[in-house]
Write a structure and sequence with these properties.
With about 220 residues, the protein is of the alpha/beta class. About 50% of the residues lie in helices and about 10% in strands. The protein has eight helices and five strands. It has helices spanning about 1-20, 25-40, 50-65, 75-85, 100-110, 145-155, 175-195, 210-215, and strands at about 70-75, 90-95, 120, 135-140, 165-170. The protein has a five-stranded parallel β-sheet, with helices on both faces. α1 runs antiparallel to α2 (about 25-40). The longest helix is centred in the N-terminal third of the chain and has 19 residues, at about 1-20. The protein starts with a helix and ends in a 7-residue tail after the last helix.
């Protein structure tokens, strides 16, 4: 059901852009890309989600072994959807809508509460300086599509002094725009590392205008 919803949205979206001709702009293309990415998370018609099914299964294993997990999303709305569906794992939220004075209490509850197995985080809120090395699992549910930002998110748990290994899972839906975006960014990352080595420079992994258009096999002015 979710794949059929995606297929229809992509076909209709490309058809609409084509019909707009020269009136179509890069912003119209970006809006379609964003809509397709959202469908890859949850089917708006049925609520089904292949990503969630996988996340739920992994969290079952995580919770049963007494571990804690971080789940990242680009958008807070996705975190709220997950929070309702993951109630049995005692999810806590940490994002821009949480008051700064409450954030420290959220982190402390996540650390101390044995029933709080999941912390749902936005990439922006989980920024530099936040140490969550007591989490053993990191799930990038809704991708940011900037490898440097994603690496920073993973590093919240994978810090010096971590008690054990950290398992990182990056979600993407095969045969969709998510896979195409990932292929472009991965090729750029590999090229940069082969030439320069060391840390990733953020600017090398932006998607250009031409690459964005190629995701939909569509050409505009």
């Amino acid at each position: 059901q979710q794949r059929e919803t995606y297929r229809l949205a992509e076909d209709q979206g490309v058809l609409r852009l084509t019909g707009m001709g020269e009136a179509a702009t890069i912003q119209h293309v970006f809006e379609l890309v964003l809509r397709l990415k959202q469908i890859c998370n949850f089917d708006p018609a049925t609520g089904t989600s292949s990503k969630f099914e996988r996340l739920e299964a992994d969290l079952e294993e995580c919770a049963s072994s007494g571990h804690k997990a971080l789940v990242f999303s680009q958008w807070v709305e996705t975190l709220e959807q997950l929070r309702g569906r993951l109630a049995r794992f005692g999810p806590l939220a940490y994002h821009g809508s949480i008051q700064p004075r409450q954030r420290e209490r959220v982190i402390e509850q996540f650390r101390q509460d044995e029933d709080a197995h999941v912390l749902l985080m936005s990439y922006g809120a989980g920024g530099v300086g936040l140490n969550l090395q007591f989490a053993s699992y990191v799930f990038l549910f809704y991708r940011w599509w900037n490898p440097a930002v994603e690496d920073q998110a993973v590093n919240r748990a994978h810090r010096i002094g971590a008690a054990g290994p950290v398992t990182v899972t990056r979600f993407l839906t095969i045969g969709t725009i998510e896979e195409r975006i990932d292929e472009i960014l991965q090729s750029k990352r590999e090229l940069f590392e082969s030439i320069f080595g060391g840390d990733l420079v953020t600017s090398c992994c932006y998607i250009s205008r031409e690459e964005l258009l190629s995701l939909l096999e569509f050409t505009t002015r």
